Amino acid sequence: MQRLTSRLAADRQLLAILLLVLGNLMISVGDVLVKILGQTEVTPYQYVALRFLITVILLFPFWWRLPRAKKGWGEWKIHLIRGHLLLVGSACVFITLIYLPLATANAVFYAAPLMTLPLAAMINKEQVRLAAYGVSIVGFIGILVVLNPAQWHWAGLIALLTAFTMATSNVLVRRLPQGRSVVATLFITQGLAVPLSFALAIPTWQPLTTELWLLLVGASLVGIVYQWVCILAYAMADASKIAASEYSGLIFVTLMGMVLFAEFPAFHVYMGAAIVIIAIGLQRKLR
């Protein structure tokens, strides 16, 4: 019986790892779609507004069927803050991918886990070991190596702002009640940010072709699928045993950047990314 239980746990862990790898492949494809959109006339806030609207439309039928207690309106203030953090972060992702190679941008995005612990201590008053702050500093040294101050580009700062909004949004999730509906969280968070996103987008609105609509719908679907896959994976196994597979995203975006955009990262990008990944791994052990 014990052997069977162990086998089932191992199978679930393997499935969770495969799901995370699949999820990171999907979100890497999403980054490619966003980078392609960035080479068109679509503006950052137009992209965000339409992506939010498409996501809300796709999720509305599922949210509508939820019981009243699961619809999530009781936590609307947190959803409102997270939605507008997501608005800023999504616009920053769009801008970053215009000016930085896929691999460089994504390596900087990995600053988000390094920011999570300090932010959790400040916002949620969580107890964080002193050593964890030291590891975060090591991780940020890795980010500096990736960005290479000798070849500094202002888009690196935008990428760091993306990581900050992601980390803050993740920390605020802890303030939502346990057993919350994922559909309600995604629907309300993005729905509440739709008005401001359109207000920012309208002044520079550009007409869209069928091809651009397809890219936008594709990016929205990829984002939804990625979040669902992550939720399924982390429900199957302990985060400490499967989280490392999320680093597969760096491999995917590097290969896609090489093949699709002729982006061949310099050695300092690989070295800095390795330092960041090691720091994140150490940080998880110190929690």
Describe this structure in words.
The protein has 287 residues and is an all-alpha fold. The chain has one domain (2-285). Helix content is 77%, strand content 0%. The protein is built from 13 helices and no strands. It has helices spanning 2-38, 44-64, 76-99, 102-109, 111-123, 130-147, 155-173, 182-191, 194-201, 210-236, 239-242, 248-261, 267-285. Helix 1 (2-38) runs parallel beside helix 12. The two termini are 32 Å apart. The model has no long low-confidence stretch (mean pLDDT 85).
The gyration radius over C-alpha positions equals 19 Å
Sheet bearing the most strands, described? none
Question: How many domain modules?
Answer: 1
How do the SSEs run, as a string of H and E? HHHHHHHHHHHHH
Shape: globular
How many H/I helices? 13
List keywords for this structure.
globular, mainly alpha, 287 residues
List the helices and strands and how they pair.
Elements: H1 2-38, H2 44-64, H3 76-99, H4 102-109, H5 111-123, H6 130-147, H7 155-173, H8 182-191, H9 194-201, H10 210-236, H11 239-242, H12 248-261, H13 267-285
Summarize the structure.
This protein is mainly alpha-helical and 287 residues long. 77% of the residues lie in helices and 0% in strands.
